[in-house]
Amino acid sequence: MSFQSLGLSEALLKAISKKGYTTPSPIQQKAIPPVLEGHDVLASAQTGTGKTAGFTLPLLHILSENPKEKYRPIRALILTPTRELAAQVYANVREYSEFLNLRSAVIFGGVNQKPQAATIRQGVDVLVATPGRLLDLQSQGIISLKRVEIFVLDEADRMLDMGFLRDIEKVIKSMPEKRQNLMFSATFSKDIKKLAHGILNHPVQVEATPENTTVEAISQKVYRVAKGLKTGLIIKLISDGNWKQVLVFNRTKHGANKLCEKMIKSGITAAAIHGNKSQGARTKALAGFKSGRVRVLVATDIAARGLDIPLLPHVINFELPNISEDYVHRIGRTGRAGAKGEAISLVSADETSFLRDIEKLIDMKLPVQIVEGFEPDPNASTQPIKQGQGRQNRKPRNSNSGGSNKNSGRSNKSRSGNSARRK
Asked: Are 380 and 350 in contact (CB under 8 A)?
């Protein structure tokens, strides 16, 4: 199948050809036709499968067929959970609309809002946004969503994880009831299906890969290790293997900083990205990682969501997530576009139940290795990690999660929801 056969305009085909693409990916083949036909779509696709073009291309085609050049209200809204993903989606919108008479903009927190507001006041057809900044500008009367024709909720599962449900509900209420809705999620969990039921109207459901499966090109292995020896082991693996580009997942911001500092002291160039880092620091760290100046990028799950790192060879779980689906998200950063990738997990005794749940989800037993000098502690407890030490205390969100409670005496859940708003 070719892009021409999907029914896209010549201007879009020209932009696609300029990017060097010739054949649509599976998710693009399945999602683009029903979107062009005007259907609501619920799509399951991992990051790295070409899902962004799966909604961007038909969205741009529809808007360009009925241009509004004199006055440009926001006609399409793409809502994303993180700044990095918003910037990535916006870059795709810009590239694919190069030969179209459409204007686009991106807004997210962590940077001065004045330039963003100025751009919107000039008229924008397509707006890419994170929930917090969108609602801020809307409350100031700078943004109106009353003319939105197409609404895209990208990374819907991560939106719920980050406590954005109430924000999503506020955004939906400010848009016309009659509109086309597209929802993309890595998984079809019960919460996602419930959310979809409230947003989508008789949706066409498409999947790029079987639900919650891992990429076959990824080699997965587990190193059993004592908790206190993890740092030494990860430094040994990276140094002995002479690995040049490694994405490491840590459960907490503090842990990411600490691990990064120890790697640097060991002579490994490293940088950390998480919610406490400024947007400038996060952009600089990612640029250094992509260029090769930084060998190791240590990230929390939320900060890493949406990162576009082509041909990433190694992913290491310094700590396992207790949400099994997050494991799939993490290792899906490698093994993209047909390339081989390696996913390594350092597992201590207190993560035993997390490992068991992950293996159940992916329906496979992960091979285990033990490195001499870094053996697991035979006397360590296998009880799960105590609550309150980061994302492992996350539980499924309900309609009351992710609010904007600003009182100083809030709970862990409230704090995680509000920190998400600053992403």
From this structure: yes
